[in-house]
Design goal:
about 425 residues, alpha+beta, 5-stranded mixed beta sheet, 13 helices
Length: about 425
Amino acid sequence: MNTVSDKAFRALAEEPANAEAAEELNGLQVRRRLGLLRGVAEESRVSGHPDADLAGEAYTALLELEAAAPASVNPVLQHPAVGAWAWRTFRSLRVRGPERPARLGAIAVAAAVASGTPCRVKALLDDDGGLMLPGLGRLSPGGTCGEIEVEGHSLRAGDWSAELDLTADAPGWQVLHRIVIGDGFSVVLDDLDPHRWPEPGRVTPRLAPGALPVWRSLLPEAWHVLRANHTGVADEIVTIVRALTPITAPPEGVSSASARETFGTIAMSAPTGSPSWLAETFAHEIQHAKLDALMHLVPLVRYEKTETYYAPWRPDPRPAHGLLQGAYAYLGVTEFWQRQHPHEGLRGRVELARWREGVRRVLDTLEDEHLLNDAGMTFVDGMRTRLGTVLAEPLDGEALAAAQKAAADHRAAWEARNGISDR
C-alpha cells in the first residue's frame, strides 16, 4: 500500500480523532522510512560511493537485528531522526552531495544496543569524533572507530571501549532522556541528534540537568487533561509521537512545531503555564502531523497557485498549503476548546469563539480562490462537517465580543505589517 485508504482519508477529514486512521498513517511513514534506509544502501552501491561497502554491511546487520528482535529494534528504526537522516542522505547520494551513507552503521549499533543482540558493525564517527546512536544517546569514544563489537550495553573497538547506561549520563556518554508521560506512554527528549529537526537554528543545545524536572512534571499533568477530556486525541498521540525536541522559547508562552521530515517529533519550547494550555499544544501539533503525513501521500492543494493570503493565526501571508495546514490544526484546537471550555471559564470560551470563526474564514478562502484540487475539495467538505458541529456550540455575548475584538486586532496588526488585503 503506497497511499492512504479511502476509509482513513474520510476519517481524517470528518472525525475529530480516529486512532485507526492515525495508525495507518504511521504505518505508511514507517514503511517509507525503512524503504529510505534500503535506498541509502542501494544508491550507495549503484552510484559507486566510497562508503558503499560499509553502508551495505550496516544495512544487512540492521535487517538481521530487526529479524532477531523486532520489538526492541523497531523503536530505533521509528525514531524520527533516523527518517530525517535517511531522506537527506538518499537525496545527497542522488546529487553526489556531502552526506556519508556509512553513518548507517550508527543506526545498526543503536539497534544492537537496544535489543541486547551481540553484533559486529563498522561505523563512521561524526565529524567531531562523536557517535550518535539514534534514540539512545551520543558517545564520545576518544579513539578511532572501525569495527565495533556490541555485547549488551558494552561497546568495544580497536582502541577504546564503553559501557552505556541508558538511563543516565556518564563520562564520554550523553543519554537521551525518556520522559514518562502516563499510562505506559513515554517519549524520548531528543536534544542531541544533529538530524532531530530540519531547522538547526531553532533547536536548543543539550539541556542542563536542572531543566528536566519541568518536562517531567508538566507533561504528565497535560496528559491527565488529554486522557480525561480528549481521549481520541490522546490515542492519536500515542500512535504517532515518538520524540519531543526542545526549541527556543518565545518571549511568552510555549512555541511548538511539527515537520514532515521528522514525522513523529513535536518540537516544543520548555513547557510552561497551565496543563490545559499545554494539552492544547499537543492537540494542535497532532493535527499538523497527520496532515503532513497525508499530504505527502495525497496532494490536496493546487501548488501552481502561488498567491498568498491572510490567516487569522499568523503574522505573515500564507500560500495554499499553509492555509490548509493552519485550518486543519486550528480545527483541532476549536474541537479541543469545545470539549475543554466547561472546565476553563471565559478564556476557554473566547478561544473557541475566535478560532472557529478563523477556520471558517480560511476554508472560505481556500474554496473561493480555487486553491484546492478535487481531493482537497473532498477533504475540506469533511472538515466543514466537523466545523458545523463546533459552530453550533452556544456561547455567551461576552465571549463572542472578546473573540471578535482579538480577531480584529490581529487583522489590523497584520495589515499594518503586510498591507491592506481583501483576501
